[in-house]
Amino acid sequence: MxxxxxxxxxxxxxxxxxxxxxxxxxxxxxxxxxKRRYPQATIAAAPTANAIQVRPVFVAPNAxxxxxxxxxxxxxxxxxxxxxxVSETFGxxxxxxxxxxxxxxxxDQLATRLxx
Length: 116
Known about the structure:
By secondary structure, the chain is an alpha+beta fold. The chain has helices spanning about 15-35, 90-100, 100-110; strands spanning about 5-10, 55-60, 70-75, 85-90. A four-stranded mixed β-sheet has the order 1-2-3-4. Helix 1 runs parallel beside helix 3 (about 100-110). The longest helix has 22 residues, at about 15-35. The radius of gyration is 14 Å and the shape is globular. The relative contact order is 0.21.
């Protein structure tokens, strides 16, 4: 189950509509990345007893300047309560290169770091 995504850091870099669009992309694209990594997995819409809960997190920099980094994290919790997290940072140049597909790219990169 994909939980509601979270944006950490400076949320004022984008307006409310852009923020809503980013949050929607985070939920959709993190689920897509997990499905590509685990093709047999089912992404549940509601909590179930055996579901792993996944929270996508985006870490915004203080300012959009070339030397700052953007962060992404997937926080996972097993039905037994064990927690696991994968994270990575990306340069602003990666954001500019992938533009509308940046969130998709970001979570695909994180998914490759999860165990098979």
